[in-house]
Amino acid sequence: MISNLSKSSVKEAIIRAFVECRSTTLALFEGMDKATFCSQPHPDFSPVGWHLGHIAYIESLWLLERSAGLPCLFPQYRQLFAADGLPKAKRVQLPELKEIRYYLDTVREKALDFLETADVEQNERLWRFLIQHESQHCEIICMVLELAKISISDKKSLCTDEQSQASLDFEEMIQIPAGEFEQGSNSIDALDNESPAHQVYLDTYWIDRYPVTCRQYRAFMDAGGYQNSRWWSKAGWEWLQTEQVTQPLYWQGDRAWDNHPVCGVSWYEAEAYSRFVGKRLPTEAEWEKAASWDVTATVLVENCNCDRVARPVAQPHGVRLPQSGALRKSVLPEQACLHTGDRLFGQTTPVNAYPGGQSVYGLYDTLGNVWEWTASWFDGYQGFQSYPYIGYSQVYFDQKHRVLKGGSWATRPWVLRPSFRNWYYPSVRQLFAGFRCATSDYH
Fold this sequence. Notes:
Blueprint: H1 7-27, H2 34-38, H3 48-65, H4 78-81, H5 97-117, H6 120-148, H7 161-165, E1 173-176, E2 179-183, E3 198-202, E4 205-208, H8 214-222, H9 234-243, H10 267-276, H11 284-292, E5 293-302, E6 309-314, E7 327-328, E8 371-377, H12 390-393, E9 402-405, E10 422-424, E11 433-434, E12 438-439
Parallel strand pairs: 8-11
Antiparallel strand pairs: 1-4, 2-3, 4-12, 5-6, 5-7, 8-9, 9-10
Helix pairs in contact: 1-6, 3-5, 3-6, 9-10
């Protein structure tokens, strides 16, 4: 039963999140021309306009058709905006922005009407899933927009001269002592692949305090890292011979970016650099423990589906979480935040810019600068149950996708948490992805 928060309060929180999320979604399209709206800068990703229509399609499908039992409001869009409707290359023939806006607005109006009478206790998880679904597609929109302008070097660093030139020990590693921690999440916000939370024992290991910076990665490039098969796995070297790349996708040659995390690398590139410096990529469990777990912390947590209890929790750092789902009382002050969910920066920031956002173990930038590759294959935890459909996560448990953790500057706050799991093929480098290294034997 819902306690502490009344059903009306839960509904108000959902409405607030829906409004805030949609506002930041639409802001991405302000002043956008039709060519940008419909273009496909990369064959693996749909046009930004398609993602906007898909958001409305999924909201209509799950809330209006499958939950409220209403007929499809816009059957003419079913094939166009369904994920399995058309090949990506055929998604460029899109309605005008104002037409898709009408689609969005009409579906949203009906959805909020349904919420007035819906059983929030029964359907809350679905509503929160849809907020996160929109958030995830908005990050893809940001990525596609970056791909469209990747040849234009018009970015300017937002770091100060002191930050960009600071002589800090970015090679420093943090020792994480052996012991158990709770991996995953049972929160009402948790997506199916995050659950159930479970105990994991890890031996002592060391992990980089900071994500690998552009300055560090330049050393790999300057040493011929892209030309020497010594550092690459067999699969990675084969990938490199096919792709013929010599630097990260979002590489900035300007030294002002030296203290920013390297961004736009594939898993193969991250693995090669790790070998170059005599380390390895952390496992997903190692990353999550170092980024979030505090065995001494006990805070009051309010859940929408459980009593208020005091228990150890994974502490989020470096980000102001939205006040929904598990409402944590230990949220950092705004000045310690790396990302507030409103594209405050629109790019990466120096890895040493937010000392107030360190994890309990002392890691910087675990949430909201760049996604971080891990050594782990994406798979379900023991006891996994798909939600809301098998195709969301389970079809990707194929030992072909690597896990990424942490979120990027474009990740919305509704999906910024240590337990969140992203997954992609190791060959993909279009993500706002970097990494940090780990080792089991540090001297």
